[in-house]
Task: inverse folding
């Protein structure tokens, strides 16, 4: 199988690339750099005025779109929010143009998404059947991103949009910043502690994306969150146990709001999200509990 990945050098992209190579598949990564072959992976230049990726790709079984400016790339100024939104729209438009130009269409496009499409709540439980959309920047961004991805359905391509929870990994994503206070011996619960954290190990994210590629009746939105979401106070406790550090110094909401502005929502508010579609299709998580995930990451 030949799989084309945009955002293939990012946090999730690297994990997916490693998984695909381990299973013996061919990987093409769309890059802003020069086209080349390195470590068994083909890199094809895109998003430049002179690049024509379709001529180099020619035929692919699947596309995975992970491209977009990171939500954790800085304070959400108006400029940063435009970059976050526009990078996702432009990358997805270009993916559609590449697919349109291919004589042989891929079977599937698996597009990244996020649980931020759901409103924050301390009481609601969200599954893929939940139709309510968050009335904020992140909710609108994710909603528009998914709609843009579905445009390739007109070419007969199956579309699945993986709504990521908070992805856990040792060196990238949100976890290093969450763990830093504990490593400095000043860790504690962030905000009220009642906010939900729908988390998932990065390896399970890669496995879920691969599962979506190969499961022909999986389409539309599907949540990628571990089976046991936790409230922040519970997650903080598990993290402190794994790191063998005290959990004694709470982090108040106000300083975080002042420091991060609107971006503080990522840690101060959350959603209780369940991966019902993956469960229905009998997908199993290697790390179903926070203890198992964090023990693997820091063990």
Result:
């Amino acid at each position: 199988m030949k799989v084309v990945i945009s955002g293939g050098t990012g946090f999730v992209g690297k994990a997916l690339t490693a998984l695909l190579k381990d299973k013996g598949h061919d990987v093409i990564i769309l890059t802003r750099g020069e086209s080349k072959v390195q470590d068994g992976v083909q890199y094809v230049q895109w998003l430049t005025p002179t690049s024509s990726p379709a001529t180099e790709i020619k035929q692919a079984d699947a596309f995975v779109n992970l491209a977009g400016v990171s939500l954790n790339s800085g304070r959400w100024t108006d400029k940063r929010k435009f970059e976050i939104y526009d990078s996702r729209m432009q990358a997805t438009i270009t993916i559609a143009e590449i697919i349109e130009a291919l004589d042989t269409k891929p079977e599937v496009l698996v597009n990244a998404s996020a649980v931020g499409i759901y409103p924050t709540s301390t009481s609601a439980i969200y599954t893929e059947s939940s139709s309510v959309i968050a009335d904020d920047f992140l909710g609108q961004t994710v909603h528009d991103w998914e709609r843009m991805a579905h445009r390739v359905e007109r070419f007969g391509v199956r579309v699945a949009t993986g709504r990521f929870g908070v992805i856990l990994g040792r060196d990238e994503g949100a976890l290093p910043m969450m763990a830093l206070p504990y490593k400095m011996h000043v860790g504690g619960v962030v905000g009220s502690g009642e906010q939900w954290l729908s988390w998932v190990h990065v390896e399970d994210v890669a496995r879920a994306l691969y599962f979506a590629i190969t499961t022909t009746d999986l389409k539309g939105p599907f949540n990628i969150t571990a089976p046991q979401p936790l409230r922040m106070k519970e997650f903080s406790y598990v993290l402190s146990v794994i790191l063998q550090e005290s959990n004694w110094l709470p982090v108040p909401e106000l300083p975080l709001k002042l420091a991060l502005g609107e971006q503080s929502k990522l840690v101060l508010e959350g959603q209780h999200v369940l991966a019902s579609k993956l469960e229905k299709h009998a997908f199993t998580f290697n790390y179903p509990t926070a203890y198992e995930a964090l023990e693997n990451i820091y063990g």
